Amino acid sequence: MNASKLETEAFTVDIPCGLIVGSSVTLIGTPGSLSGNFWIDLIGIALPGESEKPIVLHYNVRLTGDKITQDPVIVQSTFTGSNGWGSEDRCPCTNCDNATEEDLENSSLEMLKSSPIPHGKNVDLLIGIFSTANNFKRRMAIRRTWMQYDAVRQGVVAVRIFYTNMDVFSVQKHTNLMVNKELWNEAHTYGDVQTSAISAKYLMKTDDDAFVRVDEIQSSVKQLNVSNGLLYGRINFDSGPHRNPESKWYISQEGWPEEKYPPWAHGPGYVVSQDIAMTIKAWYKTTHLKMFKLEDVAMGIWVNDMKKGGLPVRYETDVRINIDGCKDGYIVAHYQEPRRMLCMWENLLRTNEAACCNTN
């Protein structure tokens, strides 16, 4: 529909039902000659008991500004007859210097972007976050909280995201091409999705629902003063495979015939020295790496094989790594939803104490 002759009138375009995933409707709005402003309303079907149809999306382009700003701004909102107009989302946003605000629109993109690592620089610690494609909110919570530590912003510690299939220990692309495109856009925007090699003295693995006190991890590893053969985390020295087929951690007799596992560190947060990481890389390239269903136990198995091969291994356990929730004084807290991460970060900023949050 060409509405160029209807510059002073509003008009309606009916959008057909049954649009498939990936399809789109494009509307081009030409600013009027007087105000230079225009808006587009996406109107839904009338709700029961309401005379006015709801506005699912009010997209208002104010090229000449408004009461809040004289600069061009885009304002989005919604409307229902019973509740009236909803809260506005503005772009560019106002009062958005605080990167820990709950709303994404109130976060400064520059603060959320990953700090570049100079070519050839060997960082002290590389933290790899295992995340699945659909956990965008978790990744955003991490970007707005513990990725804001000074050591991360200054490039002393690098934090990178690895997309994984959590059912099988592997890092891979998503089978849905549209999801892959979204992940690529995310990687391009924030620069923290791992696409190239980084050299680091130590490598830490964590999950996208874990809150990591980067400063304490960095300090603890430094105090150990162990440059080779280090496995640091919440070490389990006496555990065996789950034989119940209904268990999430079930391992068959064929998968692991022995009664006990070698010492291993729980997955929410463990650190290995560079030599261990490089050995695993070499074994993988030569197909000598024994794959195992449970990623954290697999690391313990590999380190044990290195120990059998003559590597002096040092196991360092730390009870402050909380593997089943959060306890005050934590350095890693597992199973933390985005809202809790924001609360925990605010606690650290306000009191400098690792206090847990019970908010849902």
Total count of strands: 17
What is the CATH top level name of the largest domain? Alpha Beta
Please tell me the CATH architecture of the largest domain by its name.
Alpha-Beta Complex
Helical proportion? 10-25%
Radius of gyration, taken over Cα atoms and rounded to an integer in Å:
26 Å
Entry keywords:
360 residues; elongated; Spore Coat Polysaccharide Biosynthesis Protein SpsA, Chain A; alpha+beta; 5-stranded antiparallel beta sheet
Question: What does this molecule look like?
Answer:
This protein has 360 residues and is of the alpha+beta class. It folds into two domains: 1-94, no CATH class; 117-351, Spore Coat Polysaccharide Biosynthesis Protein SpsA, Chain A, CATH 3.90.550. 23% of the residues lie in helices and 22% in strands. It has eight helices and 17 strands. It has helices at 109-112, 136-144, 150-153, 177-190, 214-224, 274-285, 295-308, 338-351; strands at residues 37-43, 55-62, 73-80, 84-85, 89-91, 123-131, 157-165, 170-171, 200-207, 211-212, 230-233, 235-236, 264-265, 269-273, 314-317, 321-322, 332-333. It has a seven-stranded mixed sheet. Strands 1, 2, 3, 4 and 5 form a five-stranded antiparallel sheet that branches. Strands 10-17-16 form a three-stranded mixed sheet, with no helix packed on it. A hairpin with a 4-residue loop joins β7 and β8. The protein is elongated and about 80 Å long. Residues 97-102 and 166-172 have low confidence and may be disordered.
